[in-house]
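User: I've been trying to design a sequence by hand for this structure and keep getting stuck. Would you show me what you'd pick, starting by listing the structure so we're on the same page?

Assistant: Good idea, let's start from the same input. This is the structure you sent:
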């Protein structure tokens, strides 16, 4: 089910992070440009937004991020060269990135945290619900998540987060949700959200992943949110306030995702994501499948 929902039209993608986990690869290149198989990671995220009708995309950028703008722009000289050679496949592959939605950019300025980055979208988004997609999480294009979240937002009128079940030992890396089932519904009510709790304080093993569909009331809350965990303005803290409060724009709901998610946030997960996606690709999959078992068993080089 891929739906276009008129009530949510805009996607916000924070990309101002320094990418320190990937140094030295990210010394002069945005981490979002690291290739995952044959496309930069950020392209998967923009494609996911466009697929559900979010054609208006705002990236919250910072220094050293110009390559992102270049990637989604046209390159007439390269297009002309490929056209002259008759290399239609490559021509289409570069045009695909520049034909994706209407992409806008605003700089974050100070690196004050995810909540601060989202607040920078206020003027562009205005008074309508919007999606936030974090680039470290890739959702398999064969699975539905964002479209379901958009439906839940329309139905509840609140804000919606995406949740996955993690090993209890992993929960301190995520926002964590205390939830309540709602009879007959495929989504849950969020009673409480805690940003990166210690294992012993975690209310559950349900982790918030990088997809949100938010009511614009979140901007009013973020405007007043004090720095939290790590001294940063946390989106989770603003959402906790929306979950706890009453009235228009309050209420937070969760969609538990059980599909394929690839974490590209650190070196090991990134390598796994590359292998997982390559193994499923038509052109690279067969060769990789042939080679990988022998290689890991130490039988082949
Ligand atoms: C952010 C959020 C966290 C969430 C995570 C999902 O953390 O603050 O609540 O669980 O994204 O990827 P980050 O990974 O940016 O530190």
């Amino acid at each position: 089910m891929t739906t276009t929902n008129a009530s949510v039209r805009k996607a916000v993608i924070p990309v101002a992070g320094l990418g320190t986990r990937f140094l030295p690869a990210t010394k002069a290149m945005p981490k979002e440009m690291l290739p995952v198989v044959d496309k930069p990671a950020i392209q998967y995220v923009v494609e996911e937004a466009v697929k559900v009708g979010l054609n208006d995309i705002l990236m919250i950028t910072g220094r050293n991020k110009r390559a992102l703008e270049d990637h989604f722009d046209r390159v007439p000289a390269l297009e002309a060269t490929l056209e002259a050679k008759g290399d239609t496949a490559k021509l289409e592959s570069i045009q695909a990135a520049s034909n994706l939605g209407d992409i806008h950019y605003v700089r974050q300025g100070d690196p004050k945290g995810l909540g601060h980055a989202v607040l920078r979208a206020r003027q562009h988004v205005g008074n309508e619900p919007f999606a936030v997609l974090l680039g470290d999480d890739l959702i398999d294009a064969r699975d539905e998540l964002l479209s379901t979240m958009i439906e839940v937002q329309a139905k509840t009128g609140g804000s919606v987060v995406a949740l996955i079940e993690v090993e209890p030992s992993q929960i301190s890396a995520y926002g964590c949700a205390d939830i309540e089932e709602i009879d007959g519904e495929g989504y849950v009510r969020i009673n409480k959200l805690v940003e990166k709790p210690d294992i012993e304080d975690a209310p559950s093993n349900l982790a918030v992943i990088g997809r949100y569909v938010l009511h614009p009331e979140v901007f009013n809350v973020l405007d007043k949110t004090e720095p939290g965990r790590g001294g940063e303005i946390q989106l989770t803290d603003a959402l906790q306030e929306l979950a706890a409060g009453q009235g228009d724009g309050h209420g937070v709901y969760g969609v538990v995702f059980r599909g394929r998610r690839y974490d590209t946030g650190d070196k090991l997960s990134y390598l796994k994501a590359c292998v997982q996606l390559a193994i499923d690709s038509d052109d690279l999959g067969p060769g990789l499948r042939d080679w990988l078992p022998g290689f890991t068993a130490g039988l082949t080089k």
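That's my pick for every position. To get oriented when you compare it with your attempt: The two ends are 43 Å apart (CA to CA). The pocket of 1-O-phosphono-alpha-D-glucopyranose is lined by residues 114, 134, 136-137, 174-175, 195, 207-210, 234-236, 265 (CB under 6 Å).
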